[in-house]
């Protein structure tokens, strides 16, 4: 099988000849269909830049990124918005919900943009909402629900068009421990039940322990990787902490009782 995502010798430089900053030096890896990949690293390691390049928000200086065989580094600027809309789902730290729309309407917005037939909208919203345990708040507005519920709404909006790849940037960064666990459990169900392919950037070891594989970046390169394999999440969590002790840039705000 061909991987969903393939990066070949990605480089990203900022600045001019006098002051060049090498945010990404040389990164290559693949993500298989249905994989849950975490990206970790200290501030300045290149993880956010890498995510932005994959998301087509930023452009690479060298190398190629393939999404199901399409070289996204070659897509013309005027076609990028449509490409993102049809192929990628996004979950960001700050939710990006519209306060004037209900939870249901926020989710429906993604379907409307993709011109989904009207008769399909409500059943699809109900289905994804039930899977994410937000079926009882669809008629409420974002200011009436918790941070965790807002983020699960953002997940529903990101997943409802069945994207080839879900990109999550610090999805638990604005949440407390309980809300973080609720969100991560929901994302895990999406991964297991729907076969969603997820690439998640996080600095939090507990959040990262939900992934099946983690790439650790340092100075714009892959320092090492960890695969969960048959380990329990608790064992995987402690292995993550061991690597973070070496490279720095990690933490966890969740206690042992959450395992």
TrEMBL record:
<dbReference type="InterPro" id="IPR027417">
    <property type="entry name" value="P-loop_NTPase"/>
</dbReference>
<comment type="similarity">
    <text>Belongs to the ABC transporter superfamily.</text>
</comment>
<keyword id="KW-0547">Nucleotide-binding</keyword>
<keyword id="KW-0067">ATP-binding</keyword>
<dbReference type="GO" id="GO:0022857">
    <property type="term" value="F:transmembrane transporter activity"/>
</dbReference>
<dbReference type="GO" id="GO:0005524">
    <property type="term" value="F:ATP binding"/>
</dbReference>
<dbReference type="InterPro" id="IPR017911">
    <property type="entry name" value="MacB-like_ATP-bd"/>
</dbReference>
<dbReference type="InterPro" id="IPR003439">
    <property type="entry name" value="ABC_transporter-like_ATP-bd"/>
</dbReference>
<dbReference type="GO" id="GO:0016887">
    <property type="term" value="F:ATP hydrolysis activity"/>
</dbReference>
<protein>
    <recommendedName>
        <fullName>ABC transporter domain-containing protein</fullName>
    </recommendedName>
</protein>
<dbReference type="InterPro" id="IPR003593">
    <property type="entry name" value="AAA+_ATPase"/>
</dbReference>
<keyword id="KW-0813">Transport</keyword>
<dbReference type="Pfam" id="PF00005">
    <property type="entry name" value="ABC_tran"/>
</dbReference>
<feature type="domain" description="ABC transporter">
    <location>
        <begin position="5"/>
        <end position="244"/>
    </location>
</feature>
<dbReference type="GO" id="GO:0098796">
    <property type="term" value="C:membrane protein complex"/>
</dbReference>
């Amino acid at each position: 099988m061909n991987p969903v995502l393939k990066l070949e010798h990605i480089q990203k430089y900022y600045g001019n000849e006098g002051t060049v900053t090498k945010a990404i030096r040389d990164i290559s890896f693949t993500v298989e269909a249905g994989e849950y990949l975490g990206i970790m690293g200290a501030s300045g390691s290149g993880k956010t830049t890498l995510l932005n390049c994959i998301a087509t928000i930023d452009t690479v200086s060298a190398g190629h990124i393939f999404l199901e065989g399409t070289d996204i580094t070659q897509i013309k600027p005027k076609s990028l918005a449509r490409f993102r809309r049809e192929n990628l789902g996004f979950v960001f730290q700050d939710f990006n919900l519209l306060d004037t729309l209900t939870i249901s309407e926020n989710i429906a917005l993604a379907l409307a943009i993709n011109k989904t037939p009207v008769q399909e909208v409500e059943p699809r919203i109900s289905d994804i909402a039930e899977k994410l345990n937000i079926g009882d708040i669809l008629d409420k507005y974002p200011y009436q629900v918790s941070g965790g519920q807002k983020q699960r709404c953002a997940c529903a909006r990101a997943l409802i068009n069945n994207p080839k790849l879900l990109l999550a940037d610090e999805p638990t960064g604005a949440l407390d421990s309980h809300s973080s666990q609720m969100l991560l459990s929901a994302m895990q169900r999406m991964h297991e039940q729907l076969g969603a392919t997820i690439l998640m950037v996080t600095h939090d070891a507990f959040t990262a322990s939900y992934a099946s594989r983690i790439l650790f970046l340092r100075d714009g390169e892959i320092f090492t990787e960890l695969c969960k394999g048959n380990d329990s999440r608790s064992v995987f969590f402690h292995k993550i902490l061991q690597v973070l002790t070496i490279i720095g840039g990690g933490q966890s705000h969740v206690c042992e009782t959450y395992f």
